[in-house]
Design brief:
With 105 residues, the protein is mainly β. 6% of the residues lie in helices and 38% in strands. The strands form three sheets. It has a five-stranded antiparallel sheet with strand order 3-8-7-6-5, with no helix packed on it. A three-stranded mixed sheet has the order 2-9-10, with no helix packed on it.
């Protein structure tokens, strides 16, 4: 997966799923993302309110991205899978997905 997006920050969410995954999210428009191995090659997991599909690689198990169930204009890719330094210098914002559903900073 590649992206042309250059966000102002990365998001660290503390919801029950993101906390367990250890993901660091780069939010972007799906039009800014290219799937090198094919988007349909990931496996989707949908939990809770069933609004997001969390995708992972069927070979290594790494969480690659999330997308809104049924499509939409936003998605997030797991920046922890990028080359070290690719997102160097970007601010990490902490999102309280567990209680307030808002940014803590």
């Amino acid at each position: 997966m590649e992206t042309s997006a250059r966000p102002l920050w990365l998001t660290d969410c503390n919801c029950s799923l993101c906390r367990r995954l250890g993901a660091l999210w780069l939010h972007c428009d799906p039009a800014e993302v290219s799937f090198l191995c094919g988007e349909d090659e990931t496996v989707a997991y949908v939990q809770g309110d069933r609004t997001l599909a969390m995708h992972h690689c069927p070979t290594c198990g790494c969480t690659t991205h999330w997308s809104p169930k049924g499509g939409g204009d936003r998605m997030a890719i797991n920046a922890r899978l990028m080359e070290a330094g690719a997102m160097a210098g970007l601010r990490i914002r902490h999102f309280d997905g567990a209680e307030t559903f808002g940014f803590l900073d």
